[in-house]
Design goal:
This protein has helices at residues 3-19, 22-27, 39-52, 61-70, 75-87, 99-110, 115-130. The chain is mainly α.
Length: 140
């Protein structure tokens, strides 16, 4: 992608992020699936949004699908994003996390040699178990 365009997109996001309108920031989560943008940038922006704006999506299908696509090449960032998603599960009883899309992320995190990644995966699994999602008890 053209460098000038990337800089303009980044500047635009930074400008909107400063405004900090939760509903607007929620719409930026769709940028996670924009394959024309750098994966590191997309994951960092997604995590930034998750840090200030608890997810309100009832279904995280698109986000989880994209996270799975990026899992092999960006394991630490993907597990970090997933753990952050699950951090708000107590406050958002309507949050639906698909088992078949979440288990690969948890498995990669739990099997990681990086202790920070393992801790994020353990935190995510504990968050899910705490709200009765026992389908995440056995990650094989």
């Amino acid at each position: 992608m053209e460098t000038g365009l990337v800089e303009r997109i980044t500047a635009f996001f930074d400008w909107r992020f400063e405004v900090n309108e939760p509903e607007e920031l929620q719409k930026f989560t769709y940028w996670l699936a924009a394959e024309c943008l750098d994966p590191d940038w997309r994951l960092n922006i997604y995590l930034k949004i998750l840090n200030v704006n608890q997810t309100k999506n009832m279904h995280l299908s698109v986000e989880l699908e994209t996270l799975n696509k990026l899992l092999t090449s960006h394991t630490a960032q993907v597990v970090d994003c997933f753990a952050k998603i699950t951090d708000s599960i107590d406050q958002n009883g309507n949050l639906y996390i698909q088992v078949e899309k979440a288990k690969p992320i948890l498995k990669a995190g739990l099997n990681s040699e990086d202790s920070h990644v393992q801790k994020n995966a353990e935190r995510a699994r504990e968050n899910l178990l705490r709200v009765g999602r026992f389908d995440f008890l056995d990650i094989a």
